[in-house]
Amino acid sequence: MARRKTGRPVHGWVILDKPLGMTSTRAVSAVRRIFDARKAGHGGTLDPLATGLLPIALGEATKTVSFVMDGAKTYRFTVRWGVETATDDTEGEAIATSGVRPSRADIEAVLPRFTGAIEQVPPRYSAIKVAGERAYDIARDGEEPDLAAREVRIDRLELVAMEGPDETVFEADCGKGTYVRSLARDMGRALGTFGHVTALRRTRVAGFGEDDMISLEKLDDLSHIAAGRETLADVLRSMETALDDIPALAVSGADAARLMRGQAVILRGRDAPILHGTVLVASGGNPVALVEVKQGALHPKRVFNLAG
């Protein structure tokens, strides 16, 4: 007997303002429960000590998660000078201290060194795999994980405010794989002292920003109010929202049916020479599939089943 699906066929994005102290996994579970959705996932992990924008995909939107995870992100964070911790944030014990406190001029002078394409070693306590094990598991066993530097991109790094001699607030626009905790650690060392993150808030992921966010409390409230006022459906973003930067193509119902069966569709007319790479295909205003355009044909990569 086939296993019965639990939950409803809900499809779209919820742009959650993740609260302090909650894991991303727990946040996804909470949103999935509120919507009674069959399937859910997130577009980029936030540590429990971080707050802010956590894009959560429901239903068929989970097939578009990679496009959000690859998008640029913006963080506002606070660095405390003079202390380096085992985790590069407030959760870990202090492992090095210094009496040196950098001035505004000192800090602004080193910011260009951390802008553009830079080499960055991930934190000891990170989910990076080392010889098949998570780095945080190795660190918790009292060993030092052998983490190699890797290239990340930081497009903007600005000093926002000096909170006395001990703390500085920054904002950064960065690409996939950037660790703000590593950035704080490395800036501290470059300034002849130490540093760790005391507060971290994500304000943008791909095309989603602060104005798109909603709290768990508001979502829970909406799940209990009567129809006719703002409802959960009103805060659910369409699945295509995550694909704004991808070319779109409308096809006939017959071609849509072929793609849904996993069959390629020959491109005809003026679309054939100009389309390439990944394309979102729609029919009748509804998304059908993400396809790869190769040799004049549409080859389905991810087919959307919005009916169930």
Describe this entry's structure for a reader.
With 308 residues, the chain is α+β, with helices and mostly antiparallel strands. The protein folds into three domains: 12-71 and 208-240, 2-Layer Sandwich (Pseudouridine synthase), CATH 3.30.2350.10; 73-200, Pseudouridine synthase (2-Layer Sandwich), CATH 3.30.2350; 246-303, Archaeosine Trna-guanine Transglycosylase, Chain: A, domain 4 (Roll), CATH 2.30.130.60. The protein contains nine helices and 17 strands. It has helices spanning 24-35, 65-69, 104-110, 135-140, 180-190, 216-222, 232-235, 253-260, 271-274, and strands at 12-18, 40-42, 50-58, 73-81, 83-85, 94-97, 116-120, 129-130, 133-134, 150-163, 167-174, 195-205, 248-250, 265-266, 277-283, 286-294, 297-303. Strands 1, 2, 3, 4, 7, 10, 11 and 12 form an eight-stranded mixed sheet that branches. The radius of gyration is 23 Å and the shape is elongated. The two termini are 19 Å apart.
Question: What is the element layout, followed by pairings?
Answer:
Elements: E1 12-18, H1 24-35, E2 40-42, E3 50-58, H2 65-69, E4 73-81, E5 83-85, E6 94-97, H3 104-110, E7 116-120, E8 129-130, E9 133-134, H4 135-140, E10 150-163, E11 167-174, H5 180-190, E12 195-205, H6 216-222, H7 232-235, E13 248-250, H8 253-260, E14 265-266, H9 271-274, E15 277-283, E16 286-294, E17 297-303
Parallel strand pairs: 3-12, 13-15
Antiparallel strand pairs: 1-3, 2-3, 4-11, 4-12, 5-6, 7-10, 8-9, 10-11, 14-17, 15-16, 16-17
